[in-house]
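Exam prep: given the inputs below (a chain plus coenzyme A), describe the expected output before reading on.
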Amino acid sequence: MNDEVVELGEPDIRDLMDLEKLCFEYHWTREQFLLGLEGGAYKVIGVRRDGGLVGYMAFSLIADEMEILNLAVHPGYRRQGIGEALLGRSFEMCAARGVTKSFLDVKVSNDPALALYRKFGYKKIGVRKKYYPDTREDALLFRYDFQQNDA
Ligand SMILES: CC(C)(COP(=O)(O)OP(=O)(O)OC[C@H]1O[C@@H](n2cnc3c(N)ncnc32)[C@H](O)[C@@H]1OP(=O)(O)O)[C@@H](O)C(=O)NCCC(=O)NCCS
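Solution:
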């Protein structure tokens, strides 16, 4: 299915917080969402299906760097290409702005996310020991170079 990916704003905050609670133990607060949705500190894009928000991604675009801050798909809608649609749209936005590199961190045990990022060509560049406050798990750091891959 070709999902339409749209930019989200302040009116979407309730849906975003509901989805976030379904997807993460340690979830973003209203204030953290408002930094992006109102303050423009980062971008939030999403996919709606069946009248509800089923996936979203938050990412910062600073100078020529993109950083993935959060990416989540509703548990009932996983493995249907929504994560890929979101990441793909963010890459298009990066290309349009001349972004050259992207970074992210991910829990070492998060196999679905690791597989998705590797599918898009991200390469592991490091480890941060016991990085996450909720589980004290290690973070794997990944990088993607747009010029090298998209020239
Ligand atoms: C990670 C996540 C966003 C993936 O979303 P999704 O919509 O299910 O992913 P897609 O259907 O677009 O899958 C795209 C690719 O990702 C990989 N992938 C996704 N889920 C996977 C799984 N459970 N096992 C293995 N690979 C998986 C595959 O390579 C897949 O491509 P394929 O279908 O051709 O094999 C989703 O599992 C999620 O919300 N997890 C909980 C929140 C989270 O951990 N977010 C990441 C924080 S860093």
